[in-house]
Amino acid sequence: MAAAIPMAEFLRGGWTGRAAVLADLDGCLISGGTVLPQVPALFDACGERLWVVSNNSTDTAAGLSRRLAAMGLDLAADRILLAGEETLHTLAAAYPGARIALFAAPPLQALAQDLGLVLSPDRAEIAVLARDTGFGFADLARLAALVHRGAALWLTNPDPSHPGPDGVPVPETGALFAALDAMLPRGLPQCLGKPAPDLIRKALARAAVLPGAAVYIGDTPQTDGAAAAGVEFVQIAPPAAAAGATAGAVSC
Question: Which of 31, 88, 179, 184 is most buried when burial is the number of CB atoms within 10 A of its CB?
Answer without folding.
Answer: 88
